Amino acid sequence: MSKKTSNTQRQVTWVIILIFLIITTTIGGFFWIKYELDKKNNNNNNGNQGEIEKEKAREVKRVELISKAGVLVSGYFYEEAIELLKSDSDIYNDKMKGEVKKIEDFVADLQPYTGRIEQVFFHSLIVYPQLAFGPTSAEPQGYNYWMTTELEFQRMLPLLMERGYVLVHIGDLYDVDAQGNVTEKELYLPEGKRPLLISIDNVGYPESRKKDGFASKLILDDKGEVTAVIRNLEGVEVVSRTGEVFPIVDDFVKANPEFSYRGAKGMVGITGSWGVMGYDPKIASEAAEAKKIANRMRETGWQFVSHSYTHAAGKYFSETSTLEGVKEDTELFKKWIVPIIGDSNVFIAPFGVTVKGDLYQYFIDEGYSFYLNVDRRSQPKILGKSVLMPRINLDGFVMNRDKAYITEHFFDVDKVYDSRRPVFQ
To answer: pTM of this prediction?
Structure first.
């Protein structure tokens, strides 16, 4: 083979190799470029998908906050609802701004309430009418006059709400300055709503009533909620959410926040000589337990007030009240009850008696800015450095003797009245 032919063959071989390299490089480059493009597209897609998922999570949080804000608004916590909607900058968008504006516009349209101020009161509830009105009852006629059954109370609450009533505290209606001067406050409620004060008298449980179908005491249950203990028809003590006013109201407000202005419930009138919610204030361990319950009740919107120590007539609370008797009663209450329930500027008068002159001034001097009596027609009156506040007893007596008035102002008595009551005499 000639040298020239050999060189030619080598050149052809190198050309073939070069062509092969060019082809493989081109193909490899194509696949590399495709790989890089696919990777970039996948990264973009993954990034877009990731952002979509993040926005979905943000929207879930928006819906959750809007729902919570709605509950706050229904309970008249307007500023708190706005703060909640603004609380997370990561989700605060035009939608959230729109929700804030709805609340702000709603609040801007509210007007101060100018109508009547009503206050109703109750005693401990009759849970078992069979016992309260039965042959072994300590005072069946007295119970029929002055008590309300658990069934009646549960029927009242939705009817009161239908009439537009909203539970408030006295502090929502009046200001008391450092010098003891009392002035009315403006209360802004939605149209059709009106304030209602409630108080519960004699929140202690004497032995005679424990056997007559009333609660035995209040306790904190395993959830930390205030619950009643009551002896059932077999004489066995059971825990009951419907055995007394307090858990019933707590549960009703939880289900219907519009029935309570900013968490307000009612006033717990303690009569010292009856004990405190079923506990003896003179026994240290029982006083400590009562204090725990009182603290929890305050946290959930209840206020503790004085209903005297003796709840007795004669020199204490009657037409023959004396300054000596009133002072004695007040000092006993301070000694045994105030350490458990704390100070209060509200006094609920036993029997609804309105003391006068020096006796009334004594209560003002003792720091009681609000004196609560019983009167179904009157309205609160500011008297110097105090307010005389009438209350209406929603019990058997009033539902029989003043049925038309109660039906006109509160609820249809026929829809409330417990047929298990004995004939009223």
So the answer is: 0.88
